[in-house]
Amino acid sequence: MTDLADITKNYYDSSDADIFYHEIWGGEDIHIGIYKSTDDIKVASRQTVEEMTKKIQITSKSHVLDLGSGYGGTARYLAKNYDCQVTAFNLSDVENKRHQQKNKEQKFEKNIKVVQGNFEKLSFEPESFDIVWSQDAFLHTDKKQMVLKEVYRVLKTGGSFIFTDPMQSDDCPENVLEPILERIHLKEMGSPQFYKEQCQNIGFSNVQYIDLSEQLPKHYQSVLTQIISRQEELSTKISSGYLKKMRLGLELWVKGGLSGHLAWGIFLATK
Predict the structure, then answer these.
(1) DSSP annotation string for 18-41
(2) Chain mean position to CA 172
(3) Tell me: the pLDDT tens digits for 196-247?
């Protein structure tokens, strides 16, 4: 793995991160939510999954690759609603363990295969999947072009590629995101224009971007509110240092989103 992949894996494998994401996000969907008349993180996060499924065609014959699958909320939603096969590819051993336990409890072991690995180099044959899906995971690599090329390689001709990712806006001024970039160990983030151009250059067609940037600060503010309101409870389970850093980080994400320097939305492309 690259150094950044090592850092990311160690972070998500830590007890503090595992408890935080499992309890604050609800342990199913740990990505940015779409807040339709709700302040509930779990409901909003699931609404993102529902919105993404409307953009692609999924059947019981579909084989979906979920990159950065976390605790498997999306994989179980797809398996439950479409009876499709899902390969859940994820870096964190701790998240994968929880994912497998939830699959067992909810009887999805036949539909979902959990695979540990780094999506900069996928362990699959060319044209293996009908759909490649990812939510807010590409942020964690500084080799985004390599990841997109790997997606293209393993996706079947005619297949759909759908993903979301926190990004910098296309017109973001230089250096304003330095505090955020420092926290996530990156020199730069992707942007809507970057992803559209890279997907087109690699060979994807019908590349679309649905701008939902207003949802990003709403989501991070909802998480921040949960930390503040549950501070006493969380302090018995999570280290004070982690909670302090998380609060500071969330404040930066909210500020960046409200200032228009950050972007988020749904990308859709065809091979």
Answers:
(1) HHHHHHHS-SS--S----SS---H
(2) 22
(3) 999 999 999 999 999 999 999 999 999 999 999 999 999 999 999 999 999 9
CA-CA-CA-CA dihedral for 194, 195, 201, 202, to nearest 10: 140
Q: Residue 239 has what DSSP assignment?
A: -
Nearest to 60 by CA among 123, 110, 100: 110
Report whether 29 contacts 53 (CB < 8 A): no
Asked whether the beta carbons of 120 and 5 are under 8 A apart, the reply is yes
Strand pairing of 167-168 and 63-67? unpaired
For residue 127, give the 3-state DSSP assignment.
Answer: coil
For residue 85, what are the β-bridge partners?
Answer: 63
Flag whether pLDDT at 1 surpasses 70.
no
| Token code pair at residue 216 | 């990003």
Domain coordinates in residue numbering, the chain:
3-270
CA–CA gap between residue 161 and residue 163 (Å, rounded): 7
**3-270 has CATH 3.40.50.150 classification:** yes
Tokens of 140: 């964690």
H helices of the chain, in order, are 3-13, 15-24, 41-53, 73-82, 93-105, 144-154, 178-183, 192-202, 215-229, 231-234, 240-258
CA–CA distance, 220 with 212 (Å, rounded to integer): 14
User: Side chain identity at 155, as an amino acid letter?
Assistant: L
Helices 41-53/73-82 angle, 10° precision: 50
Give me the mean pLDDT over the 250-262 stretch. 98
Give the other-Cβ count within 10 Å of 44's Cβ. Answer: 21
Render pLDDT for 87-129 as a digit per residue (tens, 0 to 9).
Answer: 999 999 999 999 999 999 999 999 999 999 999 999 999 999 9
